[in-house]
């Protein structure tokens, strides 16, 4: 179900319940307005407040970051400067992890494992040696306004019965495997009835594949994203998935969306109201479960302008 209207702009400052410290503002049009907090699937199963009212802690080193994001208590963790590290840092429940202006995580990533109520925002991830963000066995996660470039494996991978996740206003550039949803065709016992994710207002610039590549999740909602020069394919629905692809802007993208990928059989994919500039028409088929939440749709033709100026870390 769609609420009519156009986003005139967006600010990274969240409602106090969701984020204590304002990370900066992002104008996507003539006017900026405050974000009320997460939307889409992340709003199901309970609220997403992250660290809530916990006093913010600023970290500037890998050791301090590792300790802060893995603590057993609620926390608001602010990243300042560039932090170099390797591997995956475990993120536990009730965390807000937000970058100050110019914050960079270089060489490592976050593993949100068996956690709930997590916000990750306003961070530039570079040259990670595994995944930049991996979400598994976790619920109520909001990944918003981050930038990703030149990593090894997934920028944002979501798998192993994770549920109720929103991935919004991120920018991925110069990277191959972008966003995987569901890691294996044989994992249906865990994944059926889960992997419900919303992807909206993300900017994929010169990337290769998996925007996202989906297994089992139904409905998965991919709307108002900007695909610019995607070199392999945009969205792939496979292995019992149901994906709604709507209101996106595809530019210089030969294969915007299709069913099946590699050895994985075709899932269901419904496409509507997308905009194509020097791009293929895509391939769709089957039916997808209804979207249970309300949402505001920008017109597809305006998505390029809105997303290119507003997505990513600021």
UniProtKB/TrEMBL annotation:
The protein's location, in the record's own words, is: Secreted
Judging by the UniProt lineage, the source's domain of life is Bacteria
Instruction: Enumerate the SUPFAM superfamilies for this protein.
Output: Pectin lyase-like
Q: Give the residue range of the signal peptide.
A: 1-34
Q: InterPro entries per the record? A: PbH1, Pec_lyase, Pectin_lyas_fold, Pectin_lyase_fold/virulence, PEL
Please name the Pfam families in this protein's record.
Pectate_lyase_4
According to the UniProt record, one GO cellular component term is: extracellular region
Keyword list, A-Z: Carbohydrate metabolism, Lyase, Polysaccharide degradation, Secreted, Signal
**Where does the record place the Pectate lyase domain?**
52-256
Give any single GO term for biological process.
polysaccharide catabolic process
List the Gene Ontology MF annotations in alphabetical order: pectate lyase activity
The family assignment reads:
Belongs to the polysaccharide lyase 1 family.
PANTHER family the UniProt entry points to: PECTATE LYASE 18-RELATED, PECTATE LYASE 21-RELATED
The protein in question is named Pectate lyase domain-containing protein
């Amino acid at each position: 179900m769609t609420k009519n209207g156009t986003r005139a702009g967006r600010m990274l400052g969240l409602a106090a319940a969701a984020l204590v410290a304002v990370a900066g503002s992002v104008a996507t049009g003539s006017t900026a307005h405050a974000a009320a907090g997460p939307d889409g699937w992340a709003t199901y199963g309970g609220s997403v407040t992250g660290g809530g009212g916990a006093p913010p802690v600023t970290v500037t080193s890998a050791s301090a970051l590792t300790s802060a994001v893995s603590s057993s208590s609620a926390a608001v963790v602010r990243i300042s400067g560039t932090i170099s590290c390797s591997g995956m840092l475990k993120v536990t429940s009730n965390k807000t992890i937000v970058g100050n202006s110019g914050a960079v995580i270089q060489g490592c990533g976050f593993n949100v494992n068996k956690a709930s109520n997590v916000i990750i925002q306003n961070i530039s991830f570079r040259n990670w040696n595994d995944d930049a963000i991996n979400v598994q066995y976790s619920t109520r996660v909001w990944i918003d306004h981050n930038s990703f470039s030149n990593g090894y494996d997934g920028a944002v991978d979501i798998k192993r019965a994770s549920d109720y996740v929103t991935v919004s206003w991120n920018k991925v550039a110069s990277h191959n495997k972008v966003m995987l949803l569901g890691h294996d065709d044989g994992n249906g016992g865990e994944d059926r009835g889960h992997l419900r994710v919303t992807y909206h207002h993300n900017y994929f610039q010169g990337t290769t594949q998996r925007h996202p590549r989906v297994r089992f999740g139904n409905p998965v909602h991919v709307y108002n994203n900007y695909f610019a020069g995607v070199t392999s394919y945009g969205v792939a629905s496979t292995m019992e998935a149901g994906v709604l692809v709507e209101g996106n802007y595809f530019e210089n993208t030969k294969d915007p969306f299709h069913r099946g990928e590699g050895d994985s059989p075709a899932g269901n994919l419904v496409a509507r109201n997308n905009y194509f500039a020097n791009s293929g028409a895509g391939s769709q088929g089957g039916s997808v479960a209804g979207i249970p939440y309300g949402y505001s749709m920008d017109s597809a033709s305006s998505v390029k302008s809105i997303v290119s100026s507003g997505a990513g870390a600021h």
